[in-house]
Amino acid sequence: MTELTAAALGRRVRAARKDRGLTQQELAKECGISRKFIGELEAGKENASLGLTLKVINHLDIDLSAKGQQRHRIDFGAQFADTLAARDYPFALRLLGEYASASITFGRPEMTSAPKIDDAEYLTALAGINRWISRKTGSATPSWAARAKPSSTPIFPAEKLHPVGDRMKDLIRKDTPAELAELNVWIRERDLATV
């Protein structure tokens, strides 16, 4: 049986909320709790209140059995498309790590086809992450990721949030997996997987 982690539960809560077409604020209001709590729960915060968490799980009718885990798979391609269209770069950056962790847990890259996103930098980053996941899990690289070409300019996804200084870029480069570096994408390995 797969172990249920705070991060995995957070992903399932987010997916169930989005399946119902609710914003975090709407779900919070329906449950009688704060939007901040919903955000922290979806982010996988380890010290979330058990009582409030159960309130959300019951409200969304989330099945915590192994069968329920299969039913609530996240469509990461759609998540990236929605998040980038909304220009929610803090969440998009966190979603890169969540996608990598979920794929490693799953045992192979979950995005077998290229996501329909307009952001070429994120598409290249996702291709590199899929190559990295394939190596880590010993699985085949999706063909779209295998065909990806290196970016002509360095891609530091964190720069969508704030400027990254030269010293920090050097640190990031030192800890970037080869599969991403080959595409001129720079993300620290520790930011990719928490499993």
Question: Considering DSSP H and I runs of 4 or more, what fraction of the residues is helical?
Answer: 55-70%
**H/E element order:** HHHHHHHHHHH
Low-confidence stretches: 67-72
Helix/strand class: mainly alpha
Rg of Cα set: 17 Å
Strand content: under 5%
Q: Largest sheet, described in full?
A: none
N-to-C span: 16 Å
Count of helical regions: 11
Tell me the overall shape. globular
Strand segment count:
0
Average per-residue pLDDT, rounded, comes to 88
Key structural traits:
195 residues; mainly alpha
How would you characterize the overall build of this protein?
By secondary structure, the protein is an all-alpha fold. 56% of the residues lie in helices and 0% in strands. The protein contains 11 helices and no strands. Helix 6 (76-85) runs antiparallel to helix 7 and helix 7 packs parallel to helix 8 (120-137).
